Amino acid sequence: MKRSGALAYEPAIKNIDTILKILEEEYPASTRTSLHFENPFQLLVATILSAQSTDKQVNKVTPGLFRKYKKPEDFVNVNILELENDIRSTGFFHNKAKNIKACAKDVMERFNGQVPDNIDELVTLPGVGRKTANVLLANVYGVQAIIVDTHVLRITQRLGLTVNTDATKIEFDIMKILPQSKWTDFSHQIIALGRSICDAKKPKCPVCRLLPYCRFGQETTGRL
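Above: the chain's sequence. Below: its structure in token form.
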């Protein structure tokens, strides 16, 4: 297998335009997060809740949560035990409640009640890493961003677009490969691919249209 820097699989790199075309054909509507929200702070909370959970489970919790807590200050003022109980079903509720309350406080005190619109400020919020920040930038502020969730991390490695395992390094690897105008669409389309075909444990390689360009698929089907 020929390697170039951090890039692992030459067919995937050379055929990136074809890969993008296939993804657009297969997932034309997958260009937005599946988390439900009505404003930037709601998406911030929902994304924090989605860590080690599923968007489906978070979407079951947030309608009632956002009816109860309408503004950041509502999260600041609630007793943490009550908030923990409200988000318990998303898992890891102790840390999530702590981060949501601290985030709400920072948004109120440091940013005048407005969720920041740039990654440098977003990642200073408690519990907010680059993935969460990029979700906000892409889905609220229209900024092109690579969102490295578990699906994007797994599938970019499988395709051979990166040999890195660190999410930040993968983000920057993919930035070098893709046109900037495709960053957000690619992220959401890869997430959709991960949910429908490229499962972590039981990937459906034989029916995947990206198989000819995928290092993992070629190895799994005995073609490499």
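The chain has two domains: 10-31+146-220, 40-139.
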